[in-house]
Amino acid sequence: MVNLDKKYMELALELAALGEGNVNPNPMVGAVVVKAGEIIGKGYHKKYGGPHAEVFALEDAGKGAEGATIYVTLEPCSHYGKTPPCAEKIIKMGIKRCVIATLDPNPLVAGKGVKLLKEAGIEVEIDVLKEKALKQNIVFFKYIEKKIPYLFLKCAITLDGKIATESGDSKWISNEIAREKVQKLRHKYMGIMIGINTLLGDNPRLNARIEGGNNPYRIVVDPNLKTPKDSNFIRNNSDNKSIIITSKDNIHSEKHLEFEKNYKVKFIFLDGNRFLMTDILKEIGKLGIDSILLEGGNSMISMAFKEMVLDGGEIFIAPKIAGDENAIPFISGFKIGTMKESIELKNVKFKVYGDNVAIEFSL
Prior knowledge:
Layout: H1 2-17, E1 30-35, E2 38-44, H2 53-61, E3 69-72, H3 86-92, E4 97-100, H4 112-119, E5 123-126, H5 130-136, H6 138-146, E6 150-157, E7 162-164, H7 176-188, E8 191-195, H8 196-202, E9 217-221, H9 232-235, E10 242-247, H10 254-262, E11 266-270, H11 277-285, E12 291-294, H12 298-306, E13 312-317, E14 328-329, E15 346-353, E16 356-362
Parallel strand pairs: 3-4, 4-5, 6-12, 6-13, 8-9, 8-12, 9-10, 10-11
Antiparallel strand pairs: 1-2, 1-3, 7-14, 13-16, 15-16
Helix pairs in contact: 3-4
């Protein structure tokens, strides 16, 4: 039974992954209904606000769900939110056994779903492939527990650690294969953040250029409100997802009022003009944004490492050498006396994208 449980939970986890980038800030969830050794229903959470995985799987199974086992990657919800409680649906459909990968840390659920199922006489098994389920929803678990977005770094560097020439030119360090991966990351994470120097130098669109991709919230850290009115960041805000983080000194300034009224730009105001990344993340979290892809540049990346607020990242290394001490390094501002004081990346994985090599890591 244990091996079979793992087999069907693996399938449920594969289904859950299909919702990546579409369900934030909800978790990815998959469900499989099995009866007499046969899969009779499958489903996954497809989009935020839509039916949950259990609903799709149970409706797929139909009347055959009575007396069956359902495998779910996250504890079935027990409260009325945007959709009715899944635990009640499971009970109503006559499920005999429920196998769950991990409990839901959301205080609105947190064991209450399991309690409802047990009180209805349903056999409940918990923690099947728990570690895989926790890893799959690492963004959700951090945000639901801390209300601070998951922060993932993406940057492309030369072999000598540069992200741009002295003049700011960076197109292109990485190859086309690596850049395609970046578009998938933009779809995966709910927000994308850059500093004002990157905006001024590259005038990026900050969208997910893949088929069916969701564009992230576009966030620029701009203490002195230098963002140009004719930038892509301002002009391409038809989805109202552009956010400027700036100093409180700019409240009610002409540019603030114009951007807010005419271009529907959202603002976060902080004290002074030198911000802490911890304060930035707290304020972004208040907007319901559960994850951020940090795309630099140097000052933003350096700040994230100094404050040790990165959850993970992927650094793409191209077989190119700038060879110019005035070219812009991807990180700076540190002074160490010995190598023991250096920042050490953890859980390192190496990936190859054509002639580019990437280091994926966590901190």
